[in-house]
Amino acid sequence: MIVLGLTGSIGMGKSTTARMFVEEGVPVHDADATVHALYAGKAAPLVEEAFPGTVTDGVVDRARLGKRVLGNPEAMKRLEAIVHPLVREAESAFLEKARAEGHRLAVLDIPLLFETGGADRVDHVLVVTAPDLVQRERVMDRAGMTEERFRELLARQLPDAEKRRRADFIIDTSLGMDAARAKVRDLIRVLTAMDREKEAREDA
């Protein structure tokens, strides 16, 4: 089975692209959704221990936690040391299930894939991108987004140009949904064919 890492900076269309893979029958593991689930489960007591007062009724209050860790590199490292191993545990279980079900391709949707060393855990990397102006418009349209928050988020992410340089595949999401969907379908064909060839070589 081929494992494809899907990533892209904020506002680049990563979530929409991930849904396109799901619509084509490809299993996708969403790291953000996993974190949300962990904040209401396994991670909550660990986060409360590290950051007292950030958990309410057994669920991490993301706004309170954000105030404690954003702009504080040491606190962010402490949080990542709690969350990242739990996300990887869920990721491993997802991949094991996908293999057992006979899928030739599985996608790991990881927002900070390069920043957290996730590229080492996948066979290929797909980066979604869009021009700066399109990115800015999309992000600033989000509820509660401010210029300061946008700058903070960008500062945590590798520049888009560097992500594109490191990518195996790129999809420009500013060209429209149909164009992106066609690229996704082409990529699925290419990667599943690669997996078949690999299987044939191993069986030979």
UniProtKB/TrEMBL annotation:
Pathway: Cofactor biosynthesis; coenzyme A biosynthesis; CoA from (R)-pantothenate: step 5/5. Gene3D superfamilies: P-loop containing nucleotide triphosphate hydrolases. Its EC number is 2.7.1.24. One of its GO terms (molecular function) is dephospho-CoA kinase activity. One of its GO terms (cellular component) is cytoplasm. It catalyses: 3'-dephospho-CoA + ATP = ADP + CoA + H(+). ATP binds at residues 11-16. Pfam families: CoaE. It comes from the Bacteria. It is found in: Cytoplasm. SUPFAM superfamilies: P-loop containing nucleoside triphosphate hydrolases. GO terms for biological process: coenzyme A biosynthetic process. Keywords: ATP-binding, Coenzyme A biosynthesis, Cytoplasm, Kinase, Nucleotide-binding, Transferase. It is an enzyme of class 2 (transferase). Catalyzes the phosphorylation of the 3'-hydroxyl group of dephosphocoenzyme A to form coenzyme A. HAMAP family: Dephospho_CoA_kinase (MF_00376). Belongs to the CoaE family. This is Dephospho-CoA kinase. The gene is coaE.
